[in-house]
Structure formats: structure tokens, C-alpha cells
């Protein structure tokens, strides 16, 4: 009997133990990696691409906690300081999730309503640049980035610490963006719109945004080593540690490598991108989204609401955004947000179904091989997803042409920016489902399913893109942060912009040659009689040369040096345009009256007269006069 009892106990223990071990062994990531092998696979991936490695901090988690935490590379290469659990990184735009969690908390408390116009939460007359004042803008529009705001041209992306504003209200007011699109018409990613939402959090909660986040997110989660303050004033330890981090650019081709030093990013619209902290703190925040008892909200129903789609691609049922959480398409869809600063890259992604998630932080700006590559390794390729398998390519068609993003400056003195860079060209290949994008560093557009495309690059970045046709019959591609619409007028705009710049450079060279020739003539004591037309041509060459420099500087400083510097350059351009107009009239008059000059010289003078008027047309086209309105 004792022997039988012992056998029954042993059998019962075996039944209790074996299923658990079998379950653990069979628990796989969407890409097919066993949970037990996640660390090994990450090690192998980092080893494969270590040529481009600076440092990486990463955590993989699920609803029960951290599955794997690892650190690779150097936080300070010169001093051979390895990255570790105390290395802090900039979150960049991943910081926006703190805003959206705050908004959902206040919505749960019934202090915010998602159908109410946001102007009801703002001081009277606060928004001054609305083009469509009769259209309602809700908090959901800010979360979806479809309130219609164009890119901010007033925020100084290269600000020093003493150029930060005294309050969030001041920053939002000074950096206000022009509303370029109808509400809900386009997705156009907006740092300013997010900062505006954070200001509404301040207004509704009665607390500063920094205090609100610390009291309602950081402290409950035990995030003791993360800062959200614009000066990092809310966490002295983080501020000190950030001085220890060095930032770099590392590439397969060493000639492109760069050392950026500490490379602070002082963010004037700080709720949109100023969070800084250790990797495990970001993992605590990310894991909070999938924890069995969500620490952000009083009820898990609020989290479930946050996970519901608030915008979709085209007229499909494919979610694009869920209350500020971007939806990324891998083998399974994930929710999350990436981020970049001048020195760091971050990514936070999780699968709301399985609860599996990952955070990645690097001290390299614009890094994708690890920040997106590791995430893709975990969640698999979108081409293996049920979404793509159930919606195969139905027809092959030509998408070659020029596409312009909605996330740009389309109106006002910064509109030349959209021609300087930002648009992309799609060109045919031998494969009808593959198109090259020659000006984007080797990226391609691959047709993977009905209306579905994948932008791929050698750097590990893959972006799901949805193709649709707008109300005017123009093809457009929708990505998670911007729409790209077909606009062949951009070809002409791009030609004009670069032609203007090239002409300016040519004029400077001509003036240099003229100066040297004049000097040689003086040395040889030879004189050359100059006509009025000769002087007017020389004046126009000077105007073109100076303006080429101005336009180059203008495009360089928009979003870098700020509003005042850009306005100064615009005023100079407008003054030169008036001088050019008068000069062109006089040159035309003098050429018409002069009956003694030869035919070729007359043609040359007419060409320069036309260039005088062309210069004025360019100033009007690029709206360099419109700094007051915008």
C-alpha cells in the first residue's frame, strides 16, 4: 500500500511539473524564437552587426516581468566605459507615450472628453494660426497626429540649455504651427501637437506636466532613474549620469563614422521628446501596458480602450494609431513608439495579444540596425503575417513618380523646405513589384499585398505602407507618421530650388573671376569701359549669389536656429527681390534702347533681365515674404 501511495504521489508531481516545463519550452516569440533562447539570439544578432555598434541597452518582457535584459558596447568609447544598467539614454519621441498615458488617466477621471474641442481646455484665443477655425479639433486628433498642423518651423532643434523657454505654455505659444490641412484629412506627425496636449494636461490637472508625470507615472512604477524635465531638474542623478554618456555614429564604412560628444538635446517642446533614463526604467514603463493589473489606470477597461484603434489606413480596417500608440506591422501587429534625438535612438514595442514586448536604447542618432532590427527579430516579418497572406497582390501597377510628405512645411516662408529635401522618387526595376527610391540611401518599395507595400533599407529599417487614392484620384501612401501623396509638381519645384542654388554658386564664381580680371587690369593699368547694362548684370549676379547663400542658410536654420534668424534672412531676400525687380526693368529698358550693341550681347542682356524677374518669381513661389502670417 505504501508503495502504491508513493507511486501515486510521484505521478501527481510529474503531472504538475511536466506541463509547466513543456509550456516553457514551447513558449515562442511571433518569429519562432523560444523564450529560453531570446538572450542567445540577441547576442548572435549583435555579434553579426557589431561593426555598426556603439552601445545597446535592451529588455524583453511580458505581462509577468522581465524575460531578458542585456547591454552591449560602450557608453564612452574613448574611456572604454561599457554600457550597463546605470547608462542613461534619451528617449526622444518615445517620451510622447507619457503624454498619452496622462491624457488617458484624465479621461478615466472624466476630466477630459474626447469629443470636446480642445479650445475649451485652453486660454481664450490661445490658438492663432488655425486655417479652418470652424472645424472641431479633439484630443483624439492630437493623439492621431491629424489635427492638420504642418511641421513646426519655430522650434530650435539645436537649442542650448539657456534657449529653453520658461514654461510649457510659453514654449507652445511661441512655437505654434500653422494649420495647413483640414482636420482628419492627413496624418502629419506633430511634436507641437503633442506638446499642446501636454499643456492641456497641465490645465486640466492643475499641476505642471513634470510634476504630473512624476506623481502619476514615475513614482507608482518605481522609475527612480528617469527624468522628463526640460533641464532634467526633476532628477539630479539622471542629469549627472547624462554627462557620462557619449554619442557617436558608427557605420560599416569607417569614413562615415562620427563622434558627437555628450550631445545634449535640449528640447524646447520637452513633453514631445525630453525623457531620459536607464533601460530598465523604460522597460518598467513599457511592461506597465501589458501587466495583468495595469498600473496606469484604475481599471483595465481604460487600458483596453487605449488599445482600440482611433485611426485606420485609407478605407481599410487596418489600424494605424491607437490613442497615441502607433501600430507597427510585423508578423503580428505591435503597439508602441520610437524616438530620436541628436545623440540617441529609442524604441518601445509590445504585442497586446501575447503581452510580449521589447525596449531598445542606443547612443547613436537615427540608428535602425538595432533599434528596429532587434524588434523585427522578435516579432517577425510582416510578409509572414496573416494580414498579408489573406490579402495577396491582386494586380501589378506602376507607382513610379514623385511623392511629397504631409509632414513638412507647405505654407509660408519655410515652404522651400519641401523642395530642398523630404520628397522621394520611385523608379521602376525589372521586378514589377519592386521600385527603387534612389534619393533615400538604397531604400525600396516592395508590393507585398493588396494595397500594402513595404519600405525596406539596408540599415534594417522596414516600414509598412498602405497605398490608396484620394478624392482627386491621386495616389498616396500612408505610413504611421505621415502620408506621402503623388505630386509631380514637386519635380519642377525641386528643379527650381536646386537650379536657383546652382545659379547662385555660378554667379559667385563669375564675380570672383570678374574681380580677379579687374585686379589684373589695374595692375597692368588697363581700363575697360562698362555700360549701364554691364553694371546691372554684375549687380544681378551679386543678388543671385548672395540669395543662393541666403536660401541655403534659410533651409539650414529653419527648425535649427529658430524664428528670429529665419525672419532676418527672409527680410533680406525680400529686399533683394525688390532690388532685382527694379534692376530687371532698368536692364530691359537699357537693352531695348541700345541700338549699337551686337546681337549676342543683346541676347545675353535679355537673358539676365529675365533672370531678374525670375528671381522675384522664386521669392513669391517660396513665400519668403509670408513670415508675418505664418
* Helical residue percent band: 25-40%
Number of helical stretches of at least 4 residues: 17
Task: Give a short account of the largest sheet.
Answer: 9 strands, antiparallel
Name of the CATH architecture of the largest domain: 3-Layer(aba) Sandwich
The name of the CATH superfamily of the largest domain reads DD-peptidase/beta-lactamase superfamily
Give the number of domains: 3
Q: Total strand count, please?
A: 22
Q: Strand portion, in percent? A: 15-25%
Report, as a whole number of angstroms, the end-to-end distance: 92 Å
Order of adjacent strands in the largest pleated sheet? 3-2-1-14-13-12-11-10-9
Q: Give average pLDDT, whole number.
A: 88
State the low-pLDDT regions, or none: 1-25
Q: What sort of overall outline do the alpha carbons produce when their principal axes are compared? A: globular
- Report the radius of gyration as a whole number of Å: 29 Å
Remind me, CATH topology of the largest domain? Answer: Beta-lactamase
In terms of structural class, how would the helical and strand content be classed?
alpha+beta
CATH class of the largest domain: Alpha Beta
Which tags fit this structure?
globular; 630 residues; 22 strands; eight-stranded antiparallel barrel; 3 domains; nine-stranded antiparallel sheet; alpha+beta; single chain; Beta-lactamase
Explain what this protein looks like in three dimensions.
This protein is an alpha+beta fold. The chain folds into 3 domains: 88-380, 3-Layer(aba) Sandwich (Beta-lactamase); 389-487; 497-621, no CATH class. 39% of the residues lie in helices and 17% in strands. The chain is built from 17 helices and 22 strands. It has helices at 2-26, 38-48, 96-108, 139-144, 168-174, 191-205, 209-221, 236-242, 279-290, 300-306, 373-379, 386-389, 417-420, 489-523, 532-557, 563-593, 599-621; strands at residues 55-62, 65-76, 81-82, 88-90, 226-227, 247-249, 258-261, 276-278, 311-312, 319-322, 325-329, 333-340, 345-350, 357-362, 401-405, 424-428, 434-437, 443-449, 452-456, 462-469, 475-478, 483-486. The strands form 4 sheets. It has a 9-stranded antiparallel beta sheet, with helices on both faces. Strands 15-16-17-18-19-20-21-22 form an 8-stranded antiparallel beta barrel. A hairpin with a 4-residue loop joins strand 21 and strand 22. The longest helix has 35 residues, at 489-523.
